[in-house]
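Here is a typical sample entry:
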Amino acid sequence: MDSKQIYLRFLNLIHALDGGASTPSMDLDAKKLLEVIAVRHAQEKPLTVTDAMGLDTIASPATIHRKLDQLRELGMIDTVFEGKNRRTKYLVPTQAAQNYFDQVGKVMEQALAQA
C-alpha cells in the first residue's frame, strides 16, 4: 500500500474516532490549537496564553480566544502559573487531552498495520 492510501485510511479512522462518544467534539481550529499546546508542552516549552493569541496561522486572536475557552470547557487544556509569576498563564494539556492523543496514536498504528 502506498503512502497516500495509508494516509487516507488514517483520515478515515480519525473521522470515525471523531464521531465516537468518548471523543470530545472539536473543530479543526481547536484541534490545531490543542496540537500546538501539546507539542510545546512535550518539548518542555509551554505555550502562554499570549503566545497562543499570536498563532495567526491557525486563526485570528478573537477566534483563538474562543477556541481556548472551548478547549477549557471540554476539559482538554488547563491554565497554570509557574513559580512565583502570577501574571503569566501557561497552557497545558489535561489527562483528557492525553487520552485523546493516545486514541489518535492507536488509530495511526492501526492504519500503518493495515498497510
Helices lie at 3-18, 28-42, 49-53, 61-73, 95-113. The beta strands are 47-48, 77-82, 85-93.
